[in-house]
């Protein structure tokens, strides 16, 4: 695998299905190597600068741990610790970090910030969540679905139902699932449905991949889905809409045991976490035998290992494996 030009990981849409499959394959190899306590030091003497404008448990711990396991170092940089946006421009911060670090990872309030960092950085920038997208989460999600595929099925055979708000996880999942040829259903009240721009991107993916996009407010659409996904009903910056959001989504769009029963006996439950149990999903669903939320969380580490390796090397030999 040869990557001659500088690439950033802002959106899975910027990568072909084959490139995403290469990253999934790298995840498989690195997860096994971690199990065998034999992870090669592929990030040795390298560092990742991690800018966090919002709190994080999984993203921070997984990137920091991945850098350490791979023999490198991660720097946690909150707005309190660095000059970004106060005493220093985005452009200058990106240029300075590029001179010292090998990768920049940023969790930001607005997509423009991570895009601006990428514009001025001379090292790869990874989007660790913004108001529009959460691509590193989705690499973990695809990998977790792949680990739990029903007998004889491939990713493209899956039907995934995302129940709830048009969050950053919803958009990235909508894009990746349709790129992989899956059926993706966004089940959401009309008032909070995904912007047309997202729908157009996903429909375009479907034309190439043979996937299918369903946008509906009818929760009966979970019937016969392989995976049901829940996420928060409001996020940072939406606090003033909290009441209207909770009263619109609750109780109809809460993933309950009844809803999972409707999806089918083998339907799996996923959530990027943190979860507000008894809000977007019940604790019973989170703790059920079909819940794979903690495998999904663990695979954030698997994904970050692969992303740090993929983006810090120009040439990597990955046994290529095309996925259907
Ligand atoms: N899913 C996710 O991004 O978790 P954190 O907010 O804890 O990083």
UniProtKB/TrEMBL annotation:
Known EC number: 2.1.3.3
Reactions catalysed according to its record: carbamoyl phosphate + L-ornithine = L-citrulline + phosphate + H(+)
All residue ranges annotated as the Aspartate/ornithine carbamoyltransferase carbamoyl-P binding domain in the record: 7-147
Claim: Cytoplasm is one of the keywords in the record: yes
InterPro entries noted in UniProt: Asp/Orn_carbamoyltranf_P-bd, Asp/Orn_carbamoylTrfase, Asp/Orn_carbamoylTrfase_sf, Asp_carbamoyltransf_Asp/Orn-bd, Orn/put_carbamltrans, PtcA
Swiss-Prot/TrEMBL keywords: Cytoplasm, Polyamine biosynthesis, Transferase
BP GO annotations: citrulline biosynthetic process; L-arginine biosynthetic process via ornithine; putrescine biosynthetic process from arginine via N-carbamoylputrescine
SUPFAM superfamilies cross-referenced by the UniProt entry: Aspartate/ornithine carbamoyltransferase
Domain of life assignment: Bacteria
Family: Belongs to the aspartate/ornithine carbamoyltransferase superfamily. OTCase family.
Protein name: Ornithine carbamoyltransferase
Taxonomic lineage: Bacteria, Pseudomonadati, Pseudomonadota, Gammaproteobacteria, Enterobacterales
């Amino acid at each position: 695998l040869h990557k001659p030009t500088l690439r950033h990981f802002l959106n899975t849409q910027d990568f072909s299905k084959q490139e995403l499959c290469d990253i999934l394959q790298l995840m498989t190899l690195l997860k096994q190597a971690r199990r065998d306590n034999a992870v090669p030091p592929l990030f040795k003497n390298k560092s990742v600068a991690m800018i966090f404008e919002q709190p994080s448990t999984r993203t921070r711990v997984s990137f920091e741990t991945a850098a350490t396991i791979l023999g490198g170092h991660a720097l946690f940089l909150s707005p309190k610790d660095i000059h970004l946006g106060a005493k220093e421009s985005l452009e200058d911060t990106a240029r300075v970090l590029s001179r010292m670090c090998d990768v920049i990872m940023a969790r930001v309030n607005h997509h423009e910030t991570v895009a601006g960092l990428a514009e001025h950085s001379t090292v790869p920038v990874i989007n660790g969540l913004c108001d529009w997208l959460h691509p590193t989460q989705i690499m973990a999600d695809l990998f977790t679905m792949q680990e739990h595929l029903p007998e004889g099925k491939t990713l493209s055979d899956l039907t995934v139902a995302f129940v709830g708000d048009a969050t950053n996880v919803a958009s990235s999942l909508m894009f990746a699932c349709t790129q992989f040829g899956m059926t993706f259903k966004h089940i959401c009240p009309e008032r909070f449905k995904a912007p047309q721009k997202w729908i157009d991107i996903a429909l375009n993916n479907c034309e190439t991949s043979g996937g299918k996009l369903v946008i509906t407010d009818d929760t009966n659409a979970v019937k016969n889905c392989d995976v049901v996904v829940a996420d928060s009903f409001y996020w940072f910056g939406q606090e003033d809409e909290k009441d209207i959001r909770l009263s619109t989504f609750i109780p109809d769009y809460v993933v309950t045991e009844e809803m999972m029963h409707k999806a089918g006996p083998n339907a799996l439950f996923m959530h990027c976490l943190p979860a507000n149990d008894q809000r977007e999903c019940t604790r019973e669903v989170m703790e059920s035998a079909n819940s794979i939320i903690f495998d999904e969380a663990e695979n954030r580490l698997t994904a970050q290992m692969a992303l740090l390796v993929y983006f810090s090397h120009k040439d990597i030999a990955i046994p290529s494996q095309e996925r259907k």
